[in-house]
Amino acid sequence: MLFNLRGALDSIFVKALLGVLIAAFAIWGIGPGMLAGSTRTVAKVGDTEVPTQQFANAVQRRATQLQAQFGGQMNTQEIIRLMNLDYQVLNQMVTDAAIEENLREMGFRATEAQLAENLRSFEAFQAPDGSFSVDMMERALQSAGFSKSELYADLRRSISREQLLNSMANNDLLPRAMAEQLYVWQAERRRASMINISASDIADIAEASEEELQSYYEASKASYMTPERRSYRYVMLTPAQFTDKVEITEDDIVAAFETRRDEYEQPELRNLLQVSFQTEDEAQNFLEQVQGGADFVEAGAAATDFTADEISLGEIGKADLAVSLDQNTADAIFALEEGATSKPIEGLAGWNVFKVTSVTPGVSTTLDEVRAELETALREELAVDLMFDFLPELEDAIAEDGALTPVATKLNIDLATVTDIDAQGKGPSGEQIVTQQNEYIVMQDAFRREMGVEAQVTDLDPQDNTKGIYLVELTNVQEPAERAYEDIASQVRTAWETEERQRRAGEIAEMAKVRLQAGEDAEVVAEELGGTSFDAKNVSRTAEGNSGLSQNIRRLIFELAVGTADAERAADGNGYVVVRVDAAMPGEPSSSPDAVDALYAQLVEQTQTEIFEQYQSYLLDKYEPEIKTNIVQQLFRSDVDQ
Question: Distance between alpha carbon 191 and the CA centroid of its chain, in Å?
């Protein structure tokens, strides 16, 4: 809550660490009541307690947030268990309690002056002119569901934490010279001569004898095994199979239209300018200037602390304006014509003058205009319901019969059969049998299954059960088998020739390396040995822009000493690349002070983060938190044990 109200903090490090410390704290809130007796606290760190009610509220709120992110496809209890959300939140709260305990011991306290200063800095508590407004604060607290006492308690803790973190945020932790030395290494550039020996371009290889090919085949039989093939049958249900059975009445369409009316109606919008004043007289004087021909924005910026950008509110609807200001103001503004200026209107923190610079008329869509769209959407939604209604019947049938063939016959549903496909969905002749996404999902399941395992209802999409379900039943597994040499002789010859060209490319690369090491010109060496030479003139340690260097070659360039050469297999496996490093240009810290500053800030932040992590570990070791896991089980996992 404090972050939402305040806005950004000054220190990047403090902001980052406060995010770690109280991001969860901002959503926990204070529950309306606490549990009684021995279950009042779920954990204790020294004398600081973690209230059970607060913990339960935190878990439920976080689960509700995640449920919305997941599109409502899982209930909160499923989310809590699948993600161990209860223990994640508990660990956060225990760590927070350890810090609270340590703050108390060290005597970190927020003064009344600090409290008042922080209250004045909250954006949500400020009037348009930037002054603190008690009315704005009370409205913001009411909207957030917090009382003043809860806010003050939260804020005092936040100030104490900020004091602690500021004590850790010491920019003198590391000497700047460390960043300069690292920059010398990090920003180094190198120049290299390179020769590419492409294996596929080598033609002068001896022809293999039949004996050599037979031996090659025997040594690499595993590479020529037939693929595992599987056969299976499956039933698939999707909402599309039920759309023809959906019955839609006129009342259904009308009700859907009313429910979605906001989607079909665009309210009238007005582009507004606003200037605020402390008194009505000041506002009236400003209005008279504008009526006398003065520019609204220029006069407003001259008469107040508002900038031209702040004076413009942009386009806004009447309902939103009533929420951000009040209903009377919204009514008055939307009664104005385009280009008109309002009389001074009293607000929560002074007097306002508005100008309507443009009006965007509202758009209203009739039912007849969207009838077809609504009917299609309704049919799709109701088809999902029909599919879900049918599932219990399907589950009962599979439980009774155990096999898909009688189930499909009994329920009059399609039974698909797939025979002898490999893991890529191809048949024995190489034709692609599996082509659709849903079919591919079923095939993957079939290749994970064991023979004899009973089919079970499975969602096509684990994240969205409205997309449909399937049941798959494995009927045959054809294990990989050796292929006779006679059947694959041409493949063996091709593989042998490819390997021989690669071996020969390696020999040529070794000769090129020796000659480059001796200082010969790369272009001459490449021409004589049958390679391609090129220069890499400004190589960085990491890829930049459209660099064509592969990572292994880039790494080799920075591993070699200046004047030395070596070879590395090409990234695509086709031959070798020979490299000689010709020069190394270290980074120059004096020429890039901004880059060094950024690197130094990164090093400091990493060091401070490591210190903070060690600090948390130290606190947890020091205070040895007492955690009542039985309460966690009772709150969120009791039915698992039943």
Answer: 39
**Cα(134)–Cα(483) distance, rounded to whole angstroms?**
85
Residue 361's SS3 state is coil
Sheet strands (E) in 240-349: 265-266, 269-277, 312-317, 345-347
Domain C-terminal end among 540, 558, 585: 585
Beta-bridge partner residues of 359? 270
- 518 in the same domain as 375: no
Pair 466, 558 in one domain: no
168-200 burial code (b ≥16 CB/10 A, e <16)? ebeeeeeebeebbebbeebbeebbbbbbbbbbe
Q: Report if residue 595 sits inside a domain.
A: no
The per-residue pLDDT for range 19-44, each reduced to its tens digit, is: 434 333 333 333 333 333 457 889 99
CB 101 within 8 A of CB 46: yes
What is the rounded CA–CA span in Å between residue 425 and residue 445? Answer: 12
DSSP state of 239: G
Q: Which residues pair with 315 in a beta bridge?
A: 271
Residue 513 is encoded by which pair of tokens? 């390396």
Helix (H, G, I), strand (E, B) or coil at 503: helix
- pLDDT tens-digit readout, 117-173: 888 888 778 776 677 777 778 777 776 666 777 777 778 777 877 777 777 666 567
- In 3-state terms, what secondary structure has residue 417? strand
* Closest residue by Cα to residue 198 from 517, 571, 557: 571
Q: Three-state DSSP class for 389?
A: helix
Q: Nearest Cα to 579, choosing from 513, 639, 631, 641? A: 513
- Composition of the chain by helix, strand, coil, percent to 5: 55, 15, 30
Strand 416-421 relative to strand 576-585, pairing: unpaired
Is 159:118 a contact under the CB 8 Å cutoff?
A: yes
The C-alpha atoms of residue 205 and residue 497 are separated, in whole angstroms, by 8
Cβ-contact 473, 404 below 8 angstroms: yes
Burial environment of residue 147 by CB neighbours within 10 A (0 to 12, 13 to 18, 19 or more): exposed
Among 587, 577, 558, smallest CA distance to 191 is for 558
Residues 536 and 630 in one domain: no
Whether the model clears a pTM of 0.85, i.e. scores above it, the answer is no
- Half-sphere CA count of 437, side-chain side, radius 13 A: 5
Beta bridge partners of 471: 235
Residue 422 tokens, joined: 């490999």
